[in-house]
Design a protein that fits this description.
Layout (H helix, E strand, L loop, with lengths): L12 E3 L6 E9 L18 E7 L5 E3 L7 H7 L5 H4 L6 H13 L7 E5 L5 H8 L4 E5 L12 E7 L8 H10 L1 E10 L7 H4 L14 E2 L2 H10 L3 E4 L3 E5 L5 H8 L4 E6 L11 E2 L6 E3 L3 E2 L4 E4 L5 E7 L5 E7 L6 H5 L2 E4 L2 E4 L1 E3 L2 E7 L5 E7 L5 E2 L5 E2 L3 E3 L15
Parallel strand pairs: 5-6, 5-7, 7-8, 12-18
Antiparallel strand pairs: 1-2, 2-3, 3-4, 4-9, 8-11, 10-11, 10-12, 13-14, 15-16, 16-26, 17-23, 18-22, 19-20, 19-23, 21-22, 24-25
């Protein structure tokens, strides 16, 4: 056993499979962990530890332990005769329910050419046909690898993308089967707001179910942007569609939810070796730049009001996000408020960031303000009044929003 050192947490890292940012080890779980929030080790322990990493930029949470597996390996160790014990609804119950739901959602698109990607036994497609949809094809690259011909207006993929060790490759394959003006719909359980606290105890992080990739809105948006698509956020279902969708694709995207983007807001880069005063010139807005070997950041000070000039794509809803790299008290966030051009929204703490969502239809820029309560003076921080430890990003790092330096 070696000595305890913070550098140990950075000894194993790999590029994020979505955005390429260095991703650190996040947690380990036993291979036999499956999707059950009460008894996830009902079938005992295998003795094989699966290591998951998480991207500090887009939040993608993944394992590389199965990257070298063949299709036969997956059939032998995961998708074998025992699989129904860990997911008893996947054959018929779930796809029937989803099929009925989407027959309702896609009303008006009965004439669309639809592909169900990762279709399993084809129950979803059968259900749509029973509800008047005239052209529905099933395709499963794993179990039924005969590739369909032509392109499709709508591609659905339910409970599939968490199973792929190559998410960009999987999405590229779906896009290759899609008309340029078509729509991709996926279902997915995204990481919860408290993922940084619960880590490997999250019920959905389950290698025995084949869950090797888990997502956030941010990494799904990155995937969409890489394919020239807008991202639409729903409740466990999400859509990707281009700027000029067909009538059928527009119906599909609208059935999911609003187009969505996220904008990260960082600490100012100016005056790196000095604190940044607030406009009253008496109180500190941003403390001097610091580093913890992973992030360069600034603490917010006692001024308590921080402005950013932000821009975003032409979408209906935007999440503004201030990442933090040190723990923050729940009541501090609960008393904080965002405004966009004077319109207020309460702040929330989601996956290591202080966030708020705003309706942005018809506008693409504005002034974002975060107002915080008076921060405590911490003995561990030299008795300074410190609130949020916010990372710095230069333009070269791909920073999306820079704070005004007051």
């Amino acid at each position: 056993m070696g000595p305890l050192h913070e550098a140990n947490s950075r000894s194993k890292q790999a590029p994020c499979k979505i955005c390429g940012t260095p991703s650190l080890e996040f947690d380990h779980v036993d291979f036999n962990k499956y999707c059950d929030d009460l008894n996830c080790y009902k079938f005992g322990f295998s003795g094989f530890q699966v290591s998951y990493l998480r991207c500090r930029e887009c939040g993608f949470l993944f394992t590389k332990d199965f990257d070298h597996w063949s299709s036969e390996d997956f059939r032998r160790y995961i998708y074998n005769n025992d699989y129904t014990k860990v997911d008893p609804e996947y054959i018929s119950i779930r796809p029937t329910h989803v099929g009925k739901d989407f027959a309702r959602r896609l009303k008006g698109a009965e004439g669309a050419r639809i592909l169900d990607y990762g279709s399993g036994a084809g129950v979803f497609a059968d259900t749509l046909r029973q509800n008047g949809f005239v052209s529905v094809t099933s395709y499963d690259p794993f179990s039924s690898p005969e590739r369909p011909t032509g392109r499709f207006d709508i591609i659905t993929s339910f409970e599939v993308i968490e199973h792929t060790p190559d998410p960009l490759g999987t999405f590229a394959d779906m896009r290759s089967l899609l008309h340029d003006d078509g729509c991709i719909i996926v279902s997915q359980t995204l990481q919860p707001a408290d993922i940084l606290s619960i880590r490997g105890s999250w019920w959905y992080l389950a290698p025995r179910n084949g869950h090797v990739s888990t997502y956030t809105e941010e990494c799904l948006e990155v995937i969409g942007r890489q394919g020239g698509h807008y991202f639409h956020r729903g409740d466990t279902v999400y859509a990707f569609v281009g700027p000029k969708p067909s009538e059928h694709a527009a119906i599909a995207a609208a059935s999911i939810g609003p187009s969505f983007s996220s904008v990260k807001l960082y600490a100012p880069t100016a005056l790196r070796e000095r604190a940044v005063l607030g406009p009253d010139r008496l109180r500190i807005a941003w403390h001097v730049m610091e580093s913890d070997e992973v992030e360069t950041f600034r603490w917010t000070g006692d001024y308590g009001s921080f402005d950013w000039q932000a821009t975003w794509p032409d979408v209906e809803r935007v999440r503004f996000s201030v990442p933090v790299v040190r723990p923050v008290a729940a009541d501090f966030v609960a008393q904080s408020v965002f405004t966009l051009d004077g319109e207020p929204q309460p702040a929330a703490f989601v996956r290591g960031a202080v966030v708020a969502d705003f309706d942005t239809k018809g506008r693409r820029s504005g002034v974002v303000r975060l107002e915080t309560p008076q921060p405590p003076r911490l003995p561990a921080e030299g008795n300074r009044a410190v609130g949020l430890a916010v990372p710095i990003r230069s333009d070269r790092d791909g920073g999306e929003g820079q704070a005004a330096s007051a």
